[in-house]
Amino acid sequence: MMHNVLDSARLCGHITRRNWAVYRKDLFANISPSLADPALIMVSLGLGLGSYLSNVNGMPYMNFLAPGLTVATTLFTSFFETSYGFYVRMTFENVFKAMLTTPIGPAEVVMGELVWVGLKGLVMALGVSLVLACFGLASQPLLLPLVGLMGFLVGVACGAIGLISSGLIRNINQFQTVYSFLIAPLYFLSGIFFPIEQLWTPLRWLAEVFPLIHGVRMAQALFWNVEVVQTLALHGGIVLVQALVFGSIAYRVIHRKLVA
Q1: Using only C-alpha atoms, what is the Rg of the chain?
Q2: Each residue of 54-94: pLDDT tens digit?
Q3: Distance CA 81, CA 118 (A)
Q4: Distance between CA atoms of residues 168 and 186, nearest Å
Q5: Torsion of CA 246, 240, 36, 116, to 10 degrees
Q6: Which SS3 state, helix, strand or coil, does residue 23 take?
Q7: H or E element at residue 64
Q8: How many CB atoms lie within 10 A of CB 237?
Q9: Smallest Cα–Cα separation from 204: which of 214, 176, 48, 93?
Q10: How far apart are CA 151 and CA 246, in angstroms?
Q11: 126: exposed, middle or buried (C-beta count within 10 Å: 0-12, 13-18, 19+)?
């Protein structure tokens, strides 16, 4: 069923609010991994390994590590929501079959899910960045609200990748393959833990195709207060294009799943 833009936006809002209503029922359990993981990484790598690395790109290792953790939080928050979470809602709970009996169509399902993970990415990235700023790891804390914008863009783009996975796999166990050969390599090879210039050039080019590395560069610019406007314009624009491309692919594969 075709809708005008305002009707589609309203229907997408219903899906986002529905997800929030379910999410907040167990809010602490849902947000605790997103907050605990960066804290554990900062303790184990920042304080532990960081005591041996006093100069990474001209700064202590904890300062180098901090920005990338905000982006990693966005990656995992959005990907797992639109992979495992979406797949369960689609396959086992039949949530979307029920929605499709209303004016909601596949386009509204995809857009509503992407708006939801974008908002989750915004809140999680902003929350982690504010905690890190309290420990003096941001040179200009007034720039950190812009981390939320980065979190939204990266959340939508990575969420679209999760939706593509949900549309292509044949059973839930196959998400492990997606994680092992796509998400984990992106996590470790996108400049979070070491300068990306040290990476083998073909791998660096491959990483550029995906949104995480561009989110890391935006977060680093904001945390370090270096070339903020140029970095946000360039890499924010790249992530926006990636979100549109991946989102279009996600719509096609999810449409096939929902109307089959």
Answers
A1: 19
A2: 788 889 999 999 999 999 999 999 999 999 999 999 999 99
A3: 11
A4: 20
A5: -70
A6: helix
A7: helix 61-80
A8: 12
A9: 214
A10: 16
A11: buried
**Coil, strand, or helix at residue 10?**
helix
Domain segments of the chain as ranges: 5-259
Measured distance CA(67)–CA(224) in Å, rounded: 9
Q: Which of 174, 162, 180, 150 is nearest to 77 (CA)?
A: 162
Q: How far apart are alpha carbons 240 and 21 in whole angstroms?
A: 28
The CA distances from residue 135 to 30, 131, 143, 190, in Å, are 24, 7, 16, 24
pLDDT tens profile 85-136 = 999 999 999 999 999 999 999 999 999 999 999 999 999 999 999 989 988 8
Q: What is the DSSP letter of 59?
A: B
Do the Cβ atoms of 128 and 38 come closer than 8 Å? Answer: yes
CA distance 43 to 21: 33
